[in-house]
Amino acid sequence: MEELFGQFSLGLFIVQTILFVGLILLLKKFAWKPILDAVNEREDGIKNALLSAENARKEMQNLQADNERTLQQARAERDAMLKEARDIKEKMIAESKNEAQAAGQKMIEQAKAAIESEKNAAMAELKARVSSLSLDIAEKLLQDELSNKEAQTKLVEKMLGDAKLN
Known about the structure:
about 0% strand
């Protein structure tokens, strides 16, 4: 084991200690500072990325909330439009029914008026025929009665008597 460590030399120890301290100072100046700067830069970059991700998540939540509100408003508008369309449809159906009833009533009234006028025309024609037949019958009866001279004289006297009374 002694061979391994050999003899201790104070001069060598001091030179090695100075070289070691010099190496540490050089590393500190040229390597350690840039490495720490790079690590700090990386840490700042990660912090910024996390902050950006958090902001993006919050913005996404806000967008989702806005989208949900917009969707609810659209649904409410759609429901209002459907209700309005149903109301208009029901109103149009009611108006059509009323118009159809009015038109039907008007047609019934016109039909009644036409029936009444046809009835009056038929009655007038019937009266004309009855009077024509009555005149024909009276004419035939008078011809039969007036064919006899004695009956003619009686009839003329009776008519003169009736005429004087009036």
